[in-house]
Structures are given as C-alpha cells and as structure tokens.
Design brief:
single chain, Na+/H+ antiporter like fold, 76% helix
Length: 314
C-alpha cells in the first residue's frame, strides 16, 4: 500500500491550522472583553445578510455549472441523502426534538466545510480546487435553501404554499446563490467596478463567521449535560465516520470511481461541519448550542479522519 506523501498530511494540518487560528482570535477577543457580549450575534447577522451573500455570488458567478452533472457530485449527493435520512430517523425515534432542531442536526451531519477547510485541503492534499466546487454548488443551491426554508417555516409557526414559494425571495444567501449561477450559466462578465466591491465584502465572510464562532465558545463548556450531547454525538459520528464510508461505497461500487477521484470524494465527505450551520442556528435562534458543539467536535474529529483517509487512499 502506498504511503501518503508528507505534503498531503501537511495540507490537512494546514487547513485546520488556518481555521483554528481565526477561531482562537475570536475567543481571545471575547475573553479579553474587547467587544461587547452581544457582538458575536451581530457579526453573525452581518455575515448572514451581507458578507456571505457577496461571497456566494462572486464564487458561483465564476463556477462551471457543468460540475452539477458529474458522477463525483452524484456520489456526494447519495452520501448526503443517506446520512441525513439516518439522522432524521434517529432524531424522530430517540431525540423527539422540534422540526427546526432536527433540520439543523441533519444539516450538521451532511453540510461540509467546503470553504475555509475544504479549499486549503483541496489545494494542498488533492492538488486542485475543482473537487470542492461541485460540493460547494450542491450545498449552496440545494442543501442551504432546503435547510433555510425548513427553519424559516418552522420559526414562523405555520406553513403556507405561498410562504414556501416566496421563501427564496426573502433569504439573501439563496438570492445571491441563484444570481451567481445564472451569471455563470449566461457567461455574464461583470465590470470590475461591480465585481470588486462584492469580492471585497465577500472576503470578510469567512473571517467574520469564524470570529463569531470563537467568541461563542467563551464562557461555555462544550458537551455539558442538558446541552444536547446525544444530538451532537450522533451528528458528529455520521459526519466524520459514516459519511466518508458512504462516499467510498457509493463511489467505488456504484459509480465506479477510482484513484484520485475516489480519494477526493472520500476526503471531501470527511470534512467537518461548516460554520454556516452555526450561523443558520444563530440567525433563527434554534439549536445554537448543538450546532456550535457539532462544528467544534467534527472539526477536531476530522483531523484524524482525514489522516486515515490519506493513509488508505492517497
């Protein structure tokens, strides 16, 4: 069996070092009392309504929409569906929590950190960002709108056909994602005067989300009793153990992926839960602690998981 190269292992660690440092800065800011206690939620709202939509538009406006038809993406989609169904079944039988919390738990078990960890890992470990692009598109165009729609409807307390149809028109992240894909599909070349400000604002999205997440850790003890430890444990195991296994089985035996493609799809599936899930939870004030602890636990657990994947498949 070939041994993983040192640069592949270094790529995994580099990706986690980047996110860990920014989270630590957010934690220290809150601990030192530099910002007010309510600054974290404010940063999360800025990311949700301004910075993240700008980032999503600029990323998707340059994306190749043909990746939506790739077998790589179908493999990821099948893994996501099975993993999410597994969490929902366990949640309904074991946890019996409201729909909004169940949706966030399912999202925590399938929504990967394709940006601030996925991109560095893709570049340093897989050698190209092309493997992250399909997953990013899937999450932005399907998983995020679906999750946000469920949260929006469950928070409003009632369901109407009109609210379902108009929900995308009320969510800036969905609007930005759809606009970006349309721009890419039409080959629209935006002038620099339009694109540059959006890129500047979008560049702040990832740091803002990570800083807000780090600030939320101050004064909190992760996985404390009564904080939803069972939900966190189930979502984390599905994310860092079952999802990569499902990706391998679907990729290898159903869609015939081999070599680099198989290694890449398993690696991407083993990425930790995205901080966006925490951002969604804060925005709708549903399952915030569970989302935060799941992001933290999967971020730590994905390090050995990714190293094992690299050792077996690189």
């Amino acid at each position: 069996m070939p041994q993983p190269r040192l640069d592949e292992m270094g790529g995994v660690l580099t990706g986690f070092a980047i996110i860990g440092f920014v989270i630590l800065v957010g934690y220290l800011l809150q601990r030192a009392g530099i910002l007010d206690p309510g600054a974290g939620p404010v940063l999360s709202r800025v990311a949700f309504f301004v910075a993240s939509p700008a980032l999503l538009f600029t990323v998707l406006a340059h994306a190749d929409v043909r990746v939506l038809l790739s077998s790589f993406l179908v493999t990821v989609l099948c893994s996501v569906i099975v993993g999410a169904m597994l969490y929902v079944i366990i949640s309904r039988v074991w946890f019996q929590v409201p729909v909004g919390e169940t949706a966030l738990g399912a999202a925590s078990s399938m929504y990967v950190n394709a940006n601030n960890i996925g991109l560095p890992v893709a570049m340093y470990v897989l050698g190209s960002a092309q493997y992250v692009a399909p997953v990013l598109l899937l999450q932005l165009l399907v998983l995020a709108p679906l999750t946000l729609s469920i949260l929006d409807i469950s928070t409003r307390g009632h369901v109407s056909f009109l609210s379902i149809l108009t929900q995308p028109l009320r969510n800036p992240m969905i609007i930005a994602s759809v606009a970006g894909v349309l721009a890419a599909a039409w080959g629209l070349q935006l002038p620099e005067a339009v694109l540059a400000p959006l890129e500047l604002i979008g560049g702040a999205a990832i740091p803002i989300v990570l800083l807000a997440f780090g600030m939320s850790l101050h004064g909190q003890r992760p996985l404390k009793a009564g904080s939803g430890r069972k939900q966190v444990a189930v979502a984390s195991v599905i994310k860092v153990v079952i999802m990569p296994l499902l990706a391998y089985l679907f990729g290898r035996f159903v869609f015939g992926l081999k070599g680099e493609d198989l290694f890449a799809v398993v690696t991407v599936s083993a990425l930790p839960t995205a901080q966006n899930i925490f951002n969604f939870a804060v925005r709708y004030n549903r399952g915030v602690v569970v989302a935060r602890d799941t992001v933290l636990l999967t971020t730590l657990g994905s390090i050995p998981a990714l190293l094992v994947v690299a050792a077996l498949l690189a």
